[in-house]
């Protein structure tokens, strides 16, 4: 609502109508899709607040996750089989769609903007293509929940970290040749990377989580246990929501060209504005909403407890009679 009806009156610039006003116009027509968490099915060009596509994907996958968890609880092997089957299907889908439509998740020299939009619309923002890593996460969570302490010697821990780091480097640097100046697009390269990179990266994350949980995390585990992250998690959701409107505002109000410098990737003024906006949003909206939910849930729980106590008391007196 802020980006649609308020932000458009807070600035101006050569790119203002193209960036800020254009997105506000889209939101006026299509924000109802965001409220229903279905906006990721209508393409980037017609999406209100494009960075929130992940909310739609997460919501849709979250709605099916109780069924998967229930199946794991009732029949472990049947649940595992279902997860592996869906993961295989989702991986094959990413490969096939990328290859047949000449898509690319790697921004190489000379890539047309239209191809990036097609990649987003046909693969990146669809839950069927994201199901692989999501269901792997569900399976790992189930495994950790039921796992006992596993004792590993130093060599095994070292091998685990070596393989995990190799997987991370492969996921990040595997398409290095695609970033070269004279690279010629090859659909096989793009399809293989889009299909396998999420799985390879998840292998790294699984080891980090496992090692930290089991006490083999070392310096990485100590870093992940840093209490400062507890504070950041309070505002992380608001950071996610506010960062792109601030990006749009800065682009829209820019009135002259700049020479690019590496430090511009992490501009402290912009980061500070995002953090301030995120803290304000958390204090004004997020935390009060959570408190309201707790109050409503507490009242409902008390009502259930009282009803249960009355029923037990009635049965007790009935048995005496």
Automatic annotation (TrEMBL):
Keywords: Membrane, Transmembrane, Transmembrane helix. It comes from the Eukaryota. Residues 21-283 form the Acyltransferase domain. Pfam families: Acyl_transf_3. PANTHER family: DROP DEAD, O-ACYLTRANSFERASE. This is Acyltransferase 3 domain-containing protein. One of its GO terms (molecular function) is acyltransferase activity, transferring groups other than amino-acyl groups. The chain crosses the membrane at residues 80-97, 124-144, 156-178, 190-210, 231-251, 263-285.
């Amino acid at each position: 609502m802020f980006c649609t009806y308020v932000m458009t009156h807070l600035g101006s610039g050569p790119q203002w109508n193209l960036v800020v006003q254009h997105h506000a116009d889209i939101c006026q027509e299509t924000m109802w899709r965001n409220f229903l968490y279905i906006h990721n099915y209508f393409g980037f060009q017609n999406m209100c607040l494009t960075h929130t596509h992940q909310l739609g994907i997460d919501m849709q996958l979250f709605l099916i996750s109780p069924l998967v968890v229930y199946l794991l609880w009732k029949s472990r092997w049947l649940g595992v089989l279902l997860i592996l089957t869906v993961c295989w299907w989702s991986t094959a889908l990413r490969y096939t769609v990328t290859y047949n439509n000449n898509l690319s998740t790697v921004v190489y020299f000379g890539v047309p903007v239209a191809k990036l939009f097609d990649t987003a619309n046909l693969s990146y923002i669809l839950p069927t293509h994201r199901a692989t890593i999501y269901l792997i996460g569900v399976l790992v969570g189930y495994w950790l929940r039921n796992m006992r302490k596993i004792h590993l010697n130093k060599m095994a821990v070292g091998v685990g970290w070596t393989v995990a780091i190799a997987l991370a480097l492969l996921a990040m640097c595997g398409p290095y040749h695609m970033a070269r100046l004279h690279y010629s697009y090859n659909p096989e390269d793009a399809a293989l990377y889009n299909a396998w990179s999420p799985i390879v990266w998840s292998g790294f994350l699984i080891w980090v989580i496992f090692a930290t949980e089991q006490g083999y995390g070392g310096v990485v585990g100590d870093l992940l246990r840093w209490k400062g992250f507890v504070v950041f998690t309070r505002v992380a959701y608001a950071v996610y929501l506010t960062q792109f409107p601030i990006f749009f505002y800065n682009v829209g109000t820019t009135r002259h060209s700049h020479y690019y410098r590496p430090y511009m990737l992490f501009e402290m003024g912009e980061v500070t504005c995002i953090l301030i906006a995120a803290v304000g949003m958390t204090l004004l909206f997020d935390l009060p909403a959570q408190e309201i939910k707790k109050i409503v849930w507490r009242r409902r729980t008390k009502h259930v407890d009282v009803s249960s106590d009355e029923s037990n008391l009635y049965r007790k007196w009935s048995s005496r009679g």
